[in-house]
Amino acid sequence: MKKLVLAAALTGAASTAFAGGMAEPVMEPVVVVEETSSSAAGIIVPLLLLVLILAASAN
After folding, report:
1. Distance CA 54, CA 59 (A)
2. In whole angstroms, what is the distance from residue 51 CA to residue 59 CA?
3. Beta-sheet strands, E only, within 1-59
4. What Rg, from alpha-carbon coordinates, does the chain have?
5. How far apart are CA 45 and CA 40, in angstroms?
6. 3-class SS at 55?
7. pLDDT tens-digit profile, the chain (59 residues)
8. Is the pTM for the entire model greater than 0.90?
9. Nearest CA to 6 among 23, 31, 14, 16?
10. Could you tell me how far CA 42 lies from the centroid of its own chain?
11. Three-state secondary-structure class, residue 1
């Protein structure tokens, strides 16, 4: 009976040692930050579009 308990304990200890196997390495993504140009460019383009629409509707 003692041998059966000992065999069960060793089997349980051995199976948990190899339960996970080899895991893939986890690579974190690289964060890329882009510098933006001046904020005037964000205002000029809509203003030019507005002028073009007004010029087209005036004709």
Report:
1. 9
2. 13
3. none
4. 35
5. 9
6. helix
7. 888 787 877 776 665 555 566 778 888 989 888 876 666 667 888 888 899 999 988 86
8. no
9. 14
10. 29
11. coil
pLDDT on residue 10: 74
Q: Give the position of tokens 């690289």.
A: 30
Classify residue 48 as left (phi > 0), alpha (psi -120 to 50) or beta: alpha
Between CA 18 and CA 16 the distance in angstroms is 5
- Helix ranges (H only) for 18-39 are none
Record the tokens describing residue 53, joined without a space.
């629409």
User: Angle at CA 47, nearest 5°, toward 49 and 42?
Assistant: 105
